[in-house]
Write a structure and sequence with these properties.
about 25% strand, six-stranded mixed beta sheet, four-stranded antiparallel beta sheet, about 260 residues
Length: about 260
């Protein structure tokens, strides 16, 4: 069997007294495309934020590329030692958020060039060449010298994807990347994700309420509710023949809301 690139081992996450993730265990294989679905508050985004070290865990361990990202030993380290460890581990992980978070005073190409220059010591010419290559990939090369204020929401999100790719991560995380967009702009961003899924070997985790896209994008679906995995399997099984009543209820509500599967 292929060694997992990501492993969650009995992970517990609390917000105050509220349990967000409860004894959560799952793994993700190298190059796998995984869609996380479920009702709001089920813990989907929290999983991504833990991988980005934006949230700590109370118990358990998270392993990325054979190394502990979170573990009791890591948690016991000093704040400085933990941050140094997280900084090193985050080099393998990129994330695209709901909001675009582009630097408003920088042009599109400078937004994409910045991280390789600051974190990897890339020369300006090399960073610019890479940035143009990535902007071409996401269909934004023609806006390289524009400011974010001159872009539509869909264009901003495509630039944000290029920026995340600039660090050449092994893992890409996408958190509801179309939720802040007008409906007519959603498809242009989903097309970029489709291209990444089919043309790259990156491991990708996608949190989305776009069920049709989750089905088409993923090698495997995880359906979560209440911080636990209710059901997992290939898209055809989850969407056409789910075994758990909670999954069936969730999908019936999706259909009742007028969303196709």
């Amino acid at each position: 069997m292929t060694t997992p690139l990501i492993r969650f081992e009995n992970v517990h996450k609390l917000y105050g007294a509220h349990s967000v993730l409860s004894d959560l265990s799952f793994s993700v294989a190298p190059c796998e495309k995984l869609s996380l679905i479920g009702p709001s508050g089920s813990g989907k985004t929290t999983i991504l934020r833990i991988l980005m070290t934006l949230e700590k865990i109370e118990k358990g361990a998270v392993i990325v590329n054979g190394r502990a990202l979170w573990s009791p030993e890591i948690s016991a380290k000093s704040a400085r030692a933990r941050e140094a460890h997280f900084h090193e581990m985050r080099r393998d992980i990129g994330m695209v958020f709901q909001q675009f978070n582009l630097f408003p005073h920088m042009t599109v190409i400078k937004n994409v060039m910045l991280a390789p220059m600051l974190t990897q010591g890339a020369e300006q010419a090399a960073a610019r060449s890479l940035a143009m290559e990535l902007l071409e990939m996401v269909g934004m090369a023609h806006k390289a010298d524009s400011l974010p204020s001159e872009l539509s929401g869909g264009q901003k999100q495509r630039v944000a994807i290029a920026r995340a790719l600039a660090l050449k991560p092994k893992v890409m995380l996408f958190d509801e990347v179309t939720s802040a967009l007008d409906p007519e702009l959603v498809e242009e961003v989903l097309n970029v994700l489709r291209k990444l899924a089919t043309e790259t070997d990156m491991t990708m985790l996608l949190v989305t309420h776009e069920m049709t896209f989750a089905r088409d994008f993923a090698d495997r679906i995880l359906f979560l509710d209440g911080g636990r995995i209710v059901e997992e399997g290939p898209p055809a099984q989850i969407f056409k023949n789910p075994s758990q009543e909670r999954t069936k209820l969730f999908l019936r509500k999706i259909v009742a809301a007028g969303l196709s599967l």
